[in-house]
Each structure stands twice: as structure tokens, then as C-alpha cells.
Design brief:
Shape: globular
CATH class: Alpha Beta
Bound molecules: uridine 5'-triphosphate
Number of helices: 12
Mean pLDDT: 96
Structural class: alpha/beta
CATH superfamily: Spore Coat Polysaccharide Biosynthesis Protein SpsA, Chain A
CATH architecture: Alpha-Beta Complex
Distance between the termini: 53 Å
Helix content: 25-40%
Number of domains: 1
Order of helices and strands: EEEHEHHHEHHEEHEHEEEHHEEHH
Strand order of the largest sheet: 5-4-1-6-11-8-12-10-9
Length: about 290
């Protein structure tokens, strides 16, 4: 079955990027000239996804405004004949059918995903974490959808990470199927170093089947006293229903300060309008370091 629906959990508190994320959701922090969440929505659209549910919470109304028409702005740009910017704004408002639901309490990623139960129905669906931007030629989520279509099982996007990071992320027990595709047999959220299965971790993308909702409803609170998506996916993995793909693409963690800077520098270097000027500036700067 083709994946048509995606959810983007964006209801986290963003405590690692305070005070920037106090009044502005971290998902709206810019990478050069677009907010992070727009890169994520565009990735889903490029993968053929037509319906997107963004999980928000109080104070995240600007996300809705961003994907809506701004009639005054559009009229003004039209009057001034600024068609290029006008078209960009119109495209942003027409990217996909975007829906919103609030997670009323920040009770974890698993709880955020559970809010999507009605929207998803009984179809397989994609999850794109709202603070993980992945840049690459083939959309990362498309690579996961292809694995789902071939194997008919849930799929997580995975990459090896350092010991320093594995204790903050999840760790996976895996068996190679090909050099990029794996069977995932177990997983643990925020392991102690001695508990890790491997240095492979889930990085921001999954394709899940709708039975995840019933599993989530019966999963006890886990790390940080939150409902962890990893704990529910572990149940799937233990039933032999979980694959992983080491996807092609560069992932930026917009939930931490260094990730935001790296994303901006690397996207700016490839930017049509400012790329070459920025490169010159960086070269001059590097010489002085
Ligand atoms: P994070 O753990 O990175 O989000 O969750 P956070 O809580 O904002 O981070 P810090 O530690 O306070 O800085 C990964 C993704 O899941 C969403 C976040 O918005 C992020 O996109 N999330 C997390 C929710 O939607 N709801 C939650 O209850 C928790």
C-alpha cells in the first residue's frame, strides 16, 4: 500500500535551544530563508505524501500561519509586481493538505504520535520528527517508504552515532539484509553505555502501521517518565515486524544549538542566491581563525 499520510510531531518544549525557542517554536527556527519545518513538509511532499498532520501545542500557532495564505502580503507583492516572492509564498501555502491537532500535555513522542490515531485510520503512515531536518537528493522518507513497500513491515531511518550521542538517543539490535537495509530485532531508548545493542540509532524518520496505536495505548511510561515511541516500536521489533534503512542524506538536529548552526552553514553554501558570496566570506573568516 502506498503511503499517503504523514505526521510531524512538533509539540516538544525545545528546552535545549532556549531562550530562542521561548516564544518561537524550535520547528520555526530558520535555515537560511525557510523555517526548519518547511524543509520537513517539502521532504514529505517530494515523497508523494499528500496529507500531513502536524502535532502542535500552545504557542505554536505561527506554524499554522506559515502554511496558510497571507492575503495582505500576497496582494501587496502582486501590486508591486514581485512575482518571484509571490509565487514562493503561494507555493508554501499550497504544499499539501495540512491538518493540526494539539497535544495538550507534553507527555512524550509516543503520546504525540497517539494523537494521530483518528487521522491515520488503518493506513500505514510516515512519521517525520519536527526538529530533524534531512537534506539529500532522494527524500529520506521516500527511502523508508520504498522499504515498506518491498517488505510490508514497519521501517525506521537509522544511522550510526557516537557513544556520546547513543545514550541520549535510542540503540538498535540489527541484522544486515543488504549493506543498507537491516532487520531490527530489539531497541532501547536512552540506554546506559553498557546497555546499548549497537551504535545504530533511529534518526527522525519512521514508517509505521496502524497497530502501533494499540501498542502505544498499552505501553507504560518509559525514560524521562514520558510515553516513548521507541518502547512501542520495540514491541513491533520483537514480533519481527521492524526493518531499518541507513538512509542517504545529511541529518541536522534542529533541537540543539550546534545542529542549527551546521544546518545554516551547509545549506547556505549550496544556496542559489547567496551560496558563492557566503563561501567567499567563510574562506576569509577561516583564515583569521
Ligand atoms: P525531543 O525530545 O527532541 O523534543 O523530541 P523536546 O522535548 O522539544 O526537546 P528538549 O529536550 O526539551 O530540547 C523529538 C520530537 O518529538 C516532538 C518534538 O517536538 C520533536 O520534534 N515531541 C516531543 C512532541 O511532539 N511531544 C512531546 O511530548 C515530546
Amino acid at each position: 500500500m502506498r503511503i499517503r499520510k504523514a505526521i510531524i510531531p512538533a509539540a516538544g518544549l525545545g528546552t535545549r535551544v532556549l531562550p530562542a525557542s521561548k516564544a518561537l517554536p524550535k520547528e520555526m527556527l530558520p535555515i537560511v530563508d525557510k523555517p526548519a519545518i518547511q524543509y520537513i513538509v517539502e521532504e514529505a511532499v517530494r515523497a508523494g505524501i499528500t496529507d500531513i498532520l502536524i502535532i502542535t501545542n500552545r504557542g505554536k500557532g505561527v506554524i499554522e500561519d506559515h502554511f496558510d495564505h497571507s492575503i495582505e502580503l500576497e496582494n501587496m507583492l502582486e501590486k508591486r509586481g514581485n512575482t518571484e516572492v509571490l509565487n514562493t509564498l503561494k507555493e508554501t501555502a499550497n504544499l499539501a493538505n495540512i491538518y493540526y491537532i494539539r497535544q495538550k500535555e507534553t507527555k512524550g513522542l509516543g503520546d504525540a504520535v497517539l494523537r494521530a490515531k483518528e487521522f491515520v485510520g488503518d493506513e500505514p503512515f510516515a512519521v517525520l520528527y519536527g526538529d530533524d531536518v534531512i537534506v539529500g537528493e532522494t527524500p529520506a522518507i521516500k527511502q523508508l517508504c520504498d522499504v515498506y513497500e518491498n517488505y510490508g513491515k514497519c521501517v525506521v531511518g537509522i544511522k550510526p552515532v557516537s557513544d556520546e550521542l547513543i545514550v541520549k538517543y535510542s540503540s538498535l539490535k540489527i541484522q544486515n539484509i543488504t549493506d543498507k537495509i537491516f532487520k531490527v530485532t530489539d531497541m532501547i531508548e536512552k540506554p546506559k553505555l553498557e546497555e546499548k545493542f549497537s551504535n545504530y540509532s533511529v534518526l527522525g524518520r519512521c514508517v509505521l502501521t496502524s497497530d502501533i496505536f494499540e501498542i502505544l495505548e498499552h505501553t507504560p511510561l518509559g525514560a524521562g517518565n514520558e510515553l516513548q515511541l521507541t518502547d512501542a516500536m520495540k514491541t513491533m521489533a520483537k514480533c519481527g515486524n521492524m526493518m531499518g534503512i541507513d538512509f542517504d542524506g545529511k541529518r541536522y538536529d534542529m533541537g540543539n544549538k550546534l545542529g542549527i548552526l551546521k544546518a545554516n552553514v551547509e545549506v547556505a553554501l549550496n544556496h542559489k542566491e547567496i551560496g558563492s558570496e557566503f563561501k567567499e566570506y567563510l574562506k576569509e573568516l577561516v583564515e583569521k581563525l
